[in-house]
Task: structure prediction
Amino acid sequence: KSIRFYIWMAVLAVIVALLFLFPVDLKINAPMTIEPLEKFTIKRTGTSDLQMIWFKGGLEQKTTSRIFQLSIADFAILDIEPSLTPGTQVDSGDLLLKVSSDFFNSQLEQTQAEIDKALAEYELLLSDPKAAELAKAKAALEEARLKQINIENEYQRAKKMYEKNLISEEEWEIFKTQRSVTNKQTEIAKSEYDLLREGPKAEELLKQDAEIDRLRAKARYLKEQIEACTIRSPFDGKATLFGQPGEIISVAKNSTVEVRVRIPEDQVDILEVSQDVYARVAGFPRASFQTELTKVIASSHRMDGKNYFVAVGLLSNPSGLLKDGMTGYAKIICGKTSPMGILSRKFVRFFRVEFWSWW
Result:
């Protein structure tokens, strides 16, 4: 009987020794998702706004947002045309999206016509009027005025039909454009005729020079606006869609991906940068991936009534095996401890936090 007692005591001592002295891995087991290292998304946030969101992951973890406002009263026809389809390989600088409108294009055409008119007037100021040229200019002016009268009549009829919803918005814009072009042509013809009747004056030449410079500056501005309506990729990647509301097109850099692990708040105290991370995804259960923590995001996220912190690790993905949004589980190795150390963590937290708050 005494021998059995000593045997059980020895077994108990061994168990206690193992609980306190045997080293085991202190691990955090938590769900994780795969995210691209960089992503650039273009989406509509309203009837007249485009938003560009550029996320840079890794150590920087920076998000840049830019909004284009398209709510210009003179916009008549607005086309938003993605240049790529999901799955296409994209190089830095490739065209992603083009926003085209007849507003800037028509303004540029009108300005160019005004430049041509101003240049013609300048040349006429330098030349001597001749009888044949005067007769030709007068005939051109009369022809332009007759055309202007016809177009004006058509415009007034179209206006009444448009007010009664008998013609479409596009047809109405065509009549407006025709009227504007005809009026400009008549003005040009009249200016040419008037200039031929007068001799050149020094102050008029200076004034005309200033007008040409103003119109050229306006044309440069309009060209810049048209160029700004073309959105290009800021990095190499692949065209994709992330399923965000209003999303038009996105680009993701998947050669390196982020492993984003959702850490419960009660395990943040053992997290450190450079700890080893082992991950598996549901899509490839036979494959295992290893990396290390590069960053722990300082702010928490609330989900299912609990606070979580996000730990980030970078994982090389040259073959593109890991896709955006894949889910799985990760194990973060946080050092060594004893089995009793693991068991005691919950008790220590209870007595040091909750039980302490009762008093």
In short: The chain is about 45% helix and 30% strand. The mean pLDDT is 83. The first strand starts at residue 24 and ends at 44. The longest helix spans residues 131-163.
